[in-house]
Design a protein that fits this description.
Strand content: 25-35%
Number of helices: 8
Structural class: alpha/beta
Shape: globular
Largest sheet: 8 strands, mixed
Distance between the termini: 20 Å
Length: 191
């Protein structure tokens, strides 16, 4: 399986991917962001108007960390990932949720947000079949004052419990729609 990780940054996601995959190529917006990576790498800026058809294609593309939202060009980013994806390949990415309370948006820069319905339309436009579109972590966004006060406790003692509650108890509540991000797994159609 040939894997492309878009948005290498600190290597946090890559450390997890490398436990399961051997052929990982990383990319980020600048050489400085990928200099310390020992494997295959290249720079990619999908905020350009057009992305040419790449020579190398991948079976799995991982783009976790809100790069699509931070780029403020989600449509171009999905088009770009689609061009890098082999037919039948899988793409996994996250987008900032448009229903998340605006007070959680970064103040230092703008981000583009989308709803689940928006994401469905974009996937359809680029012949990507959604396998799963789900809200990300939501408990902290439902009760932000509690989690701001309990941040140290959450990070050290309660993280596993909170994640379990979020996954097993809150997943069917309407308030989950306020989650910060939406995770997407989609498959490129085979012609």
């Amino acid at each position: 399986v040939d894997v492309l990780e878009i948005g290498y940054f600190s290597g946090r996601i890559n450390n997890k991917l490398s436990k399961y995959y051997k052929n990982i190529t990383v990319t980020d917006i600048s050489n400085q962001m990928i200099d310390n990576y020992k494997g295959d790498k290249f720079c990619l800026d999908w905020t350009q108007e057009t992305i040419e058809e790449p020579i190398n294609k991948y079976d799995f593309i991982c783009n976790i960390g809100h790069q699509l939202s931070f780029s403020k060009n989600i449509e171009n980013g999905i088009d770009c990932m689609n061009k890098f994806l082999n037919p039948g390949g899988i793409v996994f990415f996250d987008i900032w949720n448009s229903f998340c309370d605006k007070k959680f948006l970064p103040k230092e820069y703008d981000v583009e947000t989308k709803s689940k319905a928006d994401i469905h339309e974009l996937l359809k436009k680029f012949s990507l079949t959604p396998l799963k579109i789900d809200y990300g972590f939501s408990l902290c966004y439902q009760y932000p004052k509690f989690f701001y006060l309990q941040n140290m406790l959450f990070n050290t003692l309660l993280q596993k419990q909170v994640l379990w509650i979020n996954k097993n108890l809150l997943s069917n509540l309407n308030s989950v729609k306020k989650a910060q991000n939406i995770y997407v797994i989609a498959k490129k159609e085979v012609n």
